[in-house]
Amino acid sequence: MTSTDRYAHRKVNATITVTDELGRPLSGRPITVAQRQHAFGFGCTPPDMAEESGETRELWTQLFDTATLAFYWGRYEPVRGVTDREGVLRCANWLANRGVRLKGHPLVWHTVKAPWVDELPLSEAEELLRGRIRREVGDFAGVVDSWDAINEVVIMPDFVNEPDDIKNAITRMCAEKGRVAMVALAVEEARSQNPEAQLILNDFDLGPRYERLVEEVLAAGITIDAIGLQSHMHQGFRGEDQLNEICNRFARFGLPLHWTETTILSGDLMPPEIEDLNDYVVADWPTTTDGEARQAEDIVRHYSALVAHPAVESITYWGFDDAGAWLGAPVGFLRADGTQKPSYSALRDLIRGEWWLDPVELVTDNDGRIQFDAFAGSFDVASGDSHVLVDLAAGPAQVDLQLPA
After folding, report:
1. What range(s) does the GH10 domain occupy (predicted)?
2. Which domains does the chain have, with CATH numbers?
3. pTM
């Protein structure tokens, strides 16, 4: 068994028959095939369009094809009725125009929520939350069609919002309605505006409580499209065995798995006794030479293990560079000064190397056919000035294309 066998389920075995306008096979025709996108979602939080350099944005697009856009209620609508719609839309359009798939995060969350909602009666807060979901999903339909519908529901009704825990409207709402009803609220309102949207249930709790929540949500007849799994590995890489064990447990629900937030450190690891990552506060958390070498190795192991698991549909990395990273942790592929860490080229060698089809020149046989194997995705099939973009799913594929003689 070769090392590539573990990715067989990701690959397409394509046979493309090239014909002229009359359906006659074009034999001996030079054809160029080039991959344009993976079917698998290789995602990351996008660079700040206002702050990051053009070089940083270019490095991002050379590696990732899926972006998670921030729709935190408290930042998107810091003052009631005043939203950042235009700013987010500019970023969304910039990415979409470059073929990047987009996801919004999150529609409902008890953290980074709008503080002005907390003072309102719960019934009014609920109506505003429902309206906020409908507004964002409706405004961005056709541009953002994938959403983390609700985030971290396992802890939501018990969340303590220091220093004043009694005013968190989302926490109180969830405590009153129940977790399953909160999920239903998010899903129903989102689907009312975009019935075809991909809606994801997302959580950092990867244990039995989250499994029970998924069971209860599905038993209630609530349709979710994927299970989101978070893993900020600030205390060290989980390892292949643990990743597979987690994937196997959640794969039993028959839904795609999205690793929605993943990070791996390139500096000193957080002490193992820390239970809540937010409790670790240091004045400076630098990237180090040894840490960067470790990060590059762990990144390759992490992505290789998850891409090999058949239930996993996407991986999103949480922080492209160290500037502004969550908790100040050195997790990015770029240092704070914009220079590349070894992890950037290590991951690029996989995503745009081993798992990518560079432009290849083929010639049709007597029946007008070309054949190739590649990771499933979108491919540009060209002959002369004629180009056709073809989406090919994993497995055997037979496609007929008409190109001018």
Report:
1. 34-350
2. 11-29+370-402 (no CATH), 36-354 (3.20.20.80)
3. 0.95
